[in-house]
Amino acid sequence: xxxxxxxxxxxxxxxxxxxxxxxxxxxxxxxxxxxxxxxxxxxxxxxxxxxxxxxxxxxxxxxxxxxxxxxxxxxxxxxxxxxxxxxxxxxxxxxxxxxxxxxxxxxxxxxxxxxxxxxxxxxxxxxxxxxxxxxxxxxxxxxxxxxxxxxxxxxxxxxxxxxxxxxxxxxxxxxxxxxxxxxxxxxxxxxxxxxxxxxxxxxxxxxxxxxxxxxxxxxxxxxxxxxxxxxxxxxxxxxxxxxxxxxxxxxxxxxxxxxxxxxxxxxxxxxxxxxxxxxxxxxxxxx
Length: 287
Prior knowledge:
The chain has 287 residues and is mostly beta strands. The chain contains 3 helices and 13 strands, in the order H-H-H-E-E-E-E-E-E-E-E-E-E-E-E-E. The strands form 2 sheets. Strands 1-4-5-6-7-8-9-11-12-13 form a 10-stranded antiparallel barrel. A hairpin with a 4-residue loop joins strand 4 and strand 5 (138-149). The longest helix has 20 residues, at 31-50. The chain is elongated, with a radius of gyration of 22 Å. Residues 1-19 have low confidence and may be disordered.
C-alpha cells in the first residue's frame, strides 16, 4: 500500500476538509483511508440500484409498463464512523476513529485527520424504468437517469432480464406466480468513480382480484443477491490513486404490495439488507 507523503506532518498539522460535495471529500482522502471512508457510499449506491430493479410485474409479448422507481436508503449509525489504521513505518501504526463520508460534519474527537462527512441519515433515489414483455414469460427491463447528490453529478444505466412462471393457483380471484431475474447496472459518480452492480432476485407473488372491481392486489416476498464494486481514480497530494472498493451489500430480503388499477400500478416494498431501503414504484402499462 502506498504511503501518503509526509504522513507524520499531516498527523501533527492536520487540515480540516473544507469541502461541500462527495467528490471533493473523496479527492481530499488518501489511499490508506479511502476504503473505510468511501465503502458506505458504495454499499448505499448498490442498495439503491438493486431496490425494485427486478420487480413483480410481468407482461405478455410486447406488453409493457413505464415506471418511476423511488427509493430511500437508510444509513445506519454504524456506517457513519470507521476505525482507521495508518502505517508510519515498518513497525508503527496509528489507529483512530473518524467519520465516513456519511458521518458528521464535525470531526470525531481524537481524529488526527479531522475527517468530515456529509451528515446524512439516508439517500433518496429516483429512476425511470421500462419493462417490455417478450415471449414465453420473458421480460426485459431498461433504466437510465442522470442525477445530482450534494452538488456532485452522476448517472445510472441498467438492463435486466426476468422470467415469470405461469399461474400456479388457477382458482377464482387468486393467482400465484414466481419471478426470477438478473440485472447489470453501471453507475458513474462525478469524475472520479465508476461503479458496477450485478443483482438477482426471486419473488413469489400472490394475485388477488376482487370480482366486479377494476383493481387487483399483489402481495409479494422475495430474496436477492447483489455485488457492487467501485473504482476510484484521482490525484491526492501528487499521488495517483487507483483503487477498487467492494460494497458490503450481498443479500437482501424483500416484502411488498402491488396495486393495479386499470392501466396504473403502484408498488411499495421494504428491503432488508446491509442497509435497509424503502421502494416505491408508480407506473402505467399495458399487460
